[in-house]
Structure formats: structure tokens, C-alpha cells
Amino acid sequence: AFVYVFSSLGNHLMAGIHFGTALCLYDGMLTMVEVNQSALLSELVTDAGERALMVRSSMLLGCLGTCSSVFGRLYWDREHVQPFQNMTLLLAAACVLVFGASHLLLSSIHKHVQPVSTHPDRPPTPALGQFISQLSQHTNFRHFVGVSAVQQFDCTFEKNFFVLFLNYFGGGSLSTLGHGLVISTSFVLPMLLTALSAGWVKRIGLFDTLHRILVARLAIVLVGMVAIGMQVSGTGMVLFLLANRIVSECCCRLFPLVVSDLTDEDVYLNERESSMSATIPGALNFFSKPAQALAPMAGLAMLTAQLDQAQTYNPSDEQLRPLAWYVAGVPLICVLLELGFWQSYSLRGSYKTKVSDHIRTMRETDESTNKLV
User: Fold this and answer.
1) Is 355 exposed, middle or buried (0-12, 13-18, 19+ CB in 10 A)?
2) pTM of the shown model
3) Is 8 helix (H, G, I), strand (E, B) or coil?
4) How many CB atoms are located within 10 Å of the residue 141 CB?
5) Quick one: DSSP state of residue 309?
6) Cβ-Cβ contacts under 8 Å for 172 (sequence gap 6 or more)
7) Cβ-count burial of 97 within 10 angstroms (0-12 exposed, 13-18 middle, 19+ buried)?
């Protein structure tokens, strides 16, 4: 994707290399945080309701970090980027300090943790080839790889081009502060909606919660397509873009709960001595993350097909009408694919209860053994 975007060599080559490297490092750090979060969810608690509450706490604290998008929009100026660069430098420095403090805190806690004793009657940790063979037979893992890959593509597409589409369809009706507030809202509201979804997970289960969110998103996209057919105003398109992104991001935020369930099922199916709490999320990201690279290329190809290079920043109304159909068509295809994959996911109901009971019993046995030791 980076080679495709930065294909013009010359003065912009080093800027493209710098941007690509920085983005790779950022995405690597983000993936590491996601893997650790999923691993902790499966390791710390076994109850789905408690896991949902942990996700709620994470989302509420995450709302604080998204406030930086308001300042980013206020400081951004295409002609004078120095203030924006200073702001991002201060933000990066603050993140380094927070990560360092977290590392020291976790290291001090880890020193006082007693290692769990092993059980000779359970199979040992598998070799790489054996693990790949076991993973290929994990049916629900395969189905969720499909869901996750499509969602990765969709979230990356929505995130990368949200500001650009916002400028196209709402540029004349929003001030600079209004743009910043809309962008911040697109980050904050998904986290708040995810926090509210924790109650739904406890009442109706994770499968039904995600299914209803996907159906709600399908309804939003269909209503948006009807509105586009009626030549909705710029404000209406802004509301559609915002609602679509909020619900899409909410799905992404709930996925760590699904990964925790898959980790539990892996222990149940293969009778493991301990859970592969970091390996399962890592394998999932390995198979689904490549879809992130397709989203920028697909979006750029879509813009190139609809807009002339000279009119990229100021497209005409005639060019925006077909572009609006593309903007609605991409999430429509994605949500239909996700619903198809998700319907085949069988880790729910009585089977989900059976897997959870097995994990709970195994954890209680381990705790009893450690007390005796």
C-alpha cells in the first residue's frame, strides 16, 4: 500500500519513507496492545460478564486519549505544518512516558506473582507445526478470521478516508472547530457505545450483541443509500458518515471478547495445560491484518476513478454523487459478508456455557494445586 501511494519518486521520496516507517511502527505498537489486551481478558477472568466490564473500563479510559483528535484538527494547516508537528511530538512524548510507567508498574507486580504448577496429565505446549495443524481444524477460528479480515478492511477504510469524505460532503457546512468535533465524536462515541454494550453482553450474550450491532449497521447503510438516492444535503451525508463509522468501530472494540472466547475454546478442544492466550490473538492478527493494506489501495483507486487529479481537493457536485454511492456501497458489502461469516460461528448458547465451565474448572483446579504446593 505504501509503495502504491508513494509511487512518485523525487523530493517526496524521503517523506514517503518516513511516513511509511512511522505508520508501520504505530500499527505494530497498536497490534501489540490489542494482542496483550485479548491475552489479559482470557487470563484474568473466565466469566463473560466480567470480561465485558473490563472492556467497558478500557473504553471509558480510552475516551481520554481520543480527545487529541480535536487539537490535531485545530493545529492542522496544509501550508504551515510546524504547529501540527510540534503537537504530535508532545503527544508522542507523553505516550512514551505513559508506556514506560505502565511497564514499571507491571514489572513490579509480576515479581510477586507465583508461577502456576504444571499438570503431567495434560498435553504439553505444541510445536509450531502441530499448533498450525490444530488451528486449521478450529472451525470457529476460521469463521472469525473471515469476520475480522472484513472488519479490518472496513475499519481502515472508514478511518483513513473519513476526514477526506467529511471535507468533500460537509466542507461548506462545517467550521474548523466543527470538523474537529465531528472527528473526535467519531472516536469517542464508539467507545461509549462499546461501554454500553457490556450490559447487552451480560444479558443476551456476545453472539447476539454483535449480531444486533451488525444488523443495526446494515439498516444505517440502507437508510443512507435511500437518502443518497433522494440527493441528501451535505449535513445528511455527514450524519451518515458519522453513524456508519461509530457502529463499525463498535464492532472492532468488542472483538477482544470474541478472541478470549476462541482462546478458551482452543484450550477445551485440545485439552491444553494452559491457554495460548497470546498466540491465538497473534495468529488472528497474522491472518486478518493484511486486509488493512488493501483498504488504502481500494480507497485511492476509487477516488482516482471518480475524481480528476486537479479536482481532488475541490470536486464538483456531479463528481460527488457517484462517489457517495461508493461510500455507501463499501460498508454494505462488508456488513453482508460479516453477517454471513458470523451466522456460521457456533461458539454460543449451551456450547459456550460448556466451554466456559471447563475453563472455570481448570482454573479452580490450578488454584487448589498451587495452595497445596
Assistant:
1) buried
2) 0.81
3) coil
4) 24
5) G
6) 234
7) exposed
Band of the pLDDT at 219, cuts 50, 70, 90?
Answer: very high
Element containing residue 215 per DSSP (H, E): helix 206-229
Q: Above 70 in pLDDT, residue 93?
A: yes
Nearest to 69 by CA among 154, 235, 185: 185
Place 140 in a pLDDT band, splitting at 50, 70 and 90. Answer: very high
CA distance 41 to 47: 10
In the structure grid, which three cell numbers stand for residue 186, read together? 467519531
How far apart, in whole angstroms, are the C-alpha atoms of residue 187 and residue 63?
Answer: 8
CA distances from 42 to 48, 71, 97, 266, 274 (A): 10, 36, 27, 11, 11
236 Cβ contact partners less than 8 Å away, ≥ 6 residues apart: 227
Average pLDDT, the chain: 81
Specify the DSSP element, H or E, that contains 53: helix 48-66
**Residue 344 in 3-state DSSP?**
coil
The per-residue DSSP string of 82-142 comes to: HHHHHHHHHHHHHHHHHHHHHHHHHHHHHTTPPPPPP-TTSPPPPPHHHHHHHHHT-HHHH
Among 76-90, 107-121, 291-305, 355-369, the range scoring the smallest mean pLDDT is: 107-121
Say whether 46 sits in a helix, a strand or coil.
coil
* Per-residue pLDDT at 301 exceeds 70: yes
- Exposure of 252 in the CB half-sphere (CA atoms within 13 A): 24
Mean pLDDT to the nearest integer, 44-59? 83
